[in-house]
Sequence to fold (785 residues):
Amino acid sequence: MQTRRQFIVRGGKLVAVGAAAAAVGPTIVVRDAKAAGQLKILQWSHFVPAYDKWFDPFAKEWGAKRGIEVTVDHVGFADVVPRATAEVAAQAGHDIHMFLGLASAFEEHVIDLADVTAALEKKYGKEVELARRSTYNPVTKKQFALSDMWVPDPGNYHKEAWTKIGMANGPVTYDDLVKAAPEIKKAMPQMQIPIGIGLSQDIDSNMAVRNILWCHGGSIQDKDSNVVLNSPETLAALEYTKKLYGVGMNQAVLSWNAASNNQAFNAQQTAYILNSISAYRTAQDNKLPVLENYFFTPALKGPTGTQLASEHVMSGYVVWKFSKSQDVAKEFLVALVDASRDSMLASKLYNFPSFFGAAAEPNTPVAKKAESGAAWITAQCNKDPFGSNPVDKLALLAKSLPWSTNLGYPGYGNPAEGEIFDTYVITDMFAKAATGALSPKDAMLEANTRAKQIFDKWRQKKMVAGGGKDK
Amino acid sequence: MSTTTSNPAVAVAAPLSAGDTIRRSDRRLGAIMLAPTLVYIGLLVAVPFMLALFLSLTNSSAGSLEFSFVGLANFRSVMASPVFQRALRNTFVFTLASQVTVMVLGNILARALMKSFFGKSVARFLILMPWAAPISLATLGWLWIFDSTFSVINWLLLVVGWLQPGQWYYWLGDTTLGMIAIITIHVWRMLPFSTVILLAGLTSIPSEVREAAAIDGAGTLARIFQVEIPMMKPILTVAVLFGVVFTFTDMSLVYLLTRGGPYNSTHVLASLAFQDGVLGGDVGRGAAVAIFLVPVLVVLAVVMLRASRRAEVV
Fold:
């Protein structure tokens, strides 16, 4: 009979042998043949679920035709950046990583895709300017990402509410929101939030406050990457938002997440939101009562007539330097742009091609491809193939390019703009000014200080220009 | 005839006694048994901690493996930030408020569970469920309960007349209400753990002690505060210290519920470190924020070890 000591010692030896076998076994039995003939893609779970149902088989079939095993992993949009951080730290992971905002912070770890962009421009003509400004760094002259799509950000308005107050076609200017809010409150008392513009730490609020800032003539940086947030124009934007908050919003908008404005509009708790058509498609899919009153407006105009809205989403595909399938990855990205029509249709017109020419009619000369592609896009928007009533409900999206712009406007998107976006510096500025937590001027100065710290840090890394004319 | 060696130059080691052999084998065996744990703690705790300390002194960013030493610049910048100052205060408020509440409610629940009643096993299962529920799923449920537009709490308060038409609680859109929501969910989550520990403490008190106190004329409150709680002190100390450490370092609840909003006013140190370091990509800054957890945790670790030692001696 064993003693307790003998049992423990024998058991320990067994465990040690087992662990050694487990560690050694796979490295002997399984060879690392995986790098060749494999492509791993990480991208977001699309806000329109139908798109992922198209993308995954598309990618796998593309790979199967070439003897390449393609794996597609989806993560929530909030996990895109943390996953990238982890893969860079580990120097291992996927081959292609899709960013939704600015991938510029990861520029050092991605390959230059200038050859891919050049090949696509040769095929289809130039990409849209806002895509170029989101994927190219003029300081390092590196094409760090490729965009296959961007998403317009129109106003979504409740027809019945606005008709009751005599504005059946919805608002045209930001001032219209201030005038309409108290009227909507009277006409539709069941709506908790007459104007549903978020001021919280989420992606939609980030876009919305930038729209207000730009339309009032303000911006975070100028075209040469100098920080210019401290300006009368920014102050005007903050004063405006404070007024709007007082007449048309409440504290609920300070707690919104990315789905909240969709939910509020679809529940008919608000009469106006800034959002892509994802909320509308949800209402269609679920046949919600709001559908008959669901309509769209272009970007609103500011006091001087400036009409701008940020892209709601801008894809930025990067190929990591540690990828062992870089050439395959580049080929796939070209194929993805080639399939721009399918992509737009699969997303139910959510995705707009970054290369308009990729949606052109076959056999169109290169010089005419962008025009042809734009015509095709217009045709889809004018007669929505996904059941809008009336069929031209989305017609305004076809004309969205002139009023759509990139994060970083009027300059290029860069790592500093990306960090300011991801740490909610601008939404906090607007929220503090709107609620009175700080005066508009103090809120502006606080945000400006933080913005300059962030810009200076990236200038030291020589990835952002400017500095001589910071305000 | 003498059998002893007479040559003093040859020193023969005294043969090991059976006790010596066992002691030396014990030490070796003990070291071998402890080794996996030490390796685990070293790799997953000590190494990341030293790395964080190092990174906090650099300008490391998420997208780069290269960085420069910047001294205490990150700490200076962080300490000057109103957001950090708020987060530091919130961390202490969150920890203190939630732990006091958990201790009081845990005591009440534990005492209730000591009694026999119909459905006790079901009640015990329900009490333990929050502890078993994954925090992300639970928080999603609570997100809806506290939603600023659709809150079921507000609906209930309207129905019973506490809220009048036009009145509303914007739970996650108000700084104070947001902290109350965070503390409420954390108490809900920690209560089972504390209840189980306190129940163990209560059941370990001999019944004769309670009987003697009753005979001596001690009322219920006197018995609880002057007899039972002092006797449960080692257990209470362990429960409090575990709870404090867990609460002080928690980031998931704030991140999932408010993301630190409205306007960064409900951040705690851990969530702010995540926002700055991972989401914002400023790893050096995020590490600097996280380092501020260390002094408090070191003090707590020392107190915990002393409390455990005292409990062993007793």
